[in-house]
Design the sequence.
């Protein structure tokens, strides 16, 4: 069946969408056979399109659907104001994150990266350099994401012909970290990073460890903290633990348990109380760190 042709029942081809209006030469607002509105993006896809035109959505390079984070009005404004080249480079960054770190692509991640990239390019062209307070913490706690962020800076600099400062890699990395915990609030990721950085400093100082955060033992501890904070934020904390674990921790690893209680205080500031099971598992990870001294 040809694009936009009627089938035997006289109904529109369900694989096509009806154009509502063009947002730009490269974007248009359309509705599918179920009446759901979406935005199609692609080079020249909006050129000359008018209300009622019917097109094949597979001709679009990106299809965006409004959600709680990007309602239709906000999504429409964002796509209208963001150059196609920015969306395409953002897509390359998202694909790179999937290849290197297994980070699941999502509309939220793509639009977040694109939003940051758009303003990063504008700042670079104006010679503006932004200092990110959490640069050191992000580099130390999330080296994989930071490496992808630095690659994103290199790719973007080459694509847009302007040197984007390496400091921008910090923000790219934060978006990648945020995406791994199904959160749309980058502020929650900033808070998590600050707390984890403080916890690592407290624990390593208390244990007298001189290893860098890049060491395998501390990297494992950081990973545990990341998921612990994510569980507290999503209210999915562990509530049960193997029989005998509490006795083992209390009897054989008292210093680790006491240190875990100090960490508990940091985690509960502005957050949910930790369950007894989470505190025990935290103490177990601290005990493992202690054994590396």
Sequence:
């Amino acid at each position: 069946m040809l694009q936009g042709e009627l089938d035997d029942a006289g109904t529109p081809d369900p694989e096509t969408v009806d154009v509502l209006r063009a947002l730009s030469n490269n974007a248009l607002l359309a509705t599918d056979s179920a009446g759901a509105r979406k935005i199609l993006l692609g080079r020249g896809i909006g050129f000359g399109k008018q209300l009622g035109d019917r097109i094949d959505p597979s001709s679009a390079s990106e299809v965006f659907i409004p959600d709680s984070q990007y309602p239709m009005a906000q999504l429409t404004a964002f796509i209208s104001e963001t150059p196609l080249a920015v969306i395409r480079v953002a897509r390359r960054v998202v694909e790179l994150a999937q290849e290197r770190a297994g980070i699941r692509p999502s509309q939220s991640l793509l639009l977040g990266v694109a939003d940051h990239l758009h303003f990063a390019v504008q700042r670079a062209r104006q010679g503006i350099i932004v200092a990110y307070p959490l640069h050191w913490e992000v580099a130390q706690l999330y080296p994989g994401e930071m490496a992808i962020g630095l690659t994103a800076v290199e790719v973007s600099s080459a694509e847009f012909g302007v040197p984007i400062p390496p400091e921008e890699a910090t923000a790219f990395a934060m978006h990648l970290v945020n995406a791994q915990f199904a959160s749309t609030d980058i502020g929650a990721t900033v808070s998590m990073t600050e707390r984890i950085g403080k916890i690592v400093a407290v624990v390593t100082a208390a244990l007298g460890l001189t290893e860098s955060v890049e060491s395998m033992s501390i990297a494992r501890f950081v990973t545990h903290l990341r998921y612990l904070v994510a569980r507290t934020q999503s209210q999915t904390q562990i509530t049960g633990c193997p029989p005998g674990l509490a006795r083992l921790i209390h009897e054989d690893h008292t210093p680790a348990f006491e240190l875990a209680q100090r960490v508990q205080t940091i985690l509960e500031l502005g957050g949910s109380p930790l369950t007894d099971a989470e505190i025990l598992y935290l103490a177990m990870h601290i005990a493992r760190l202690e054994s590396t001294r």
User: Anything to note?
Assistant: Residues 1-14 have pLDDT under 50 and may be disordered.
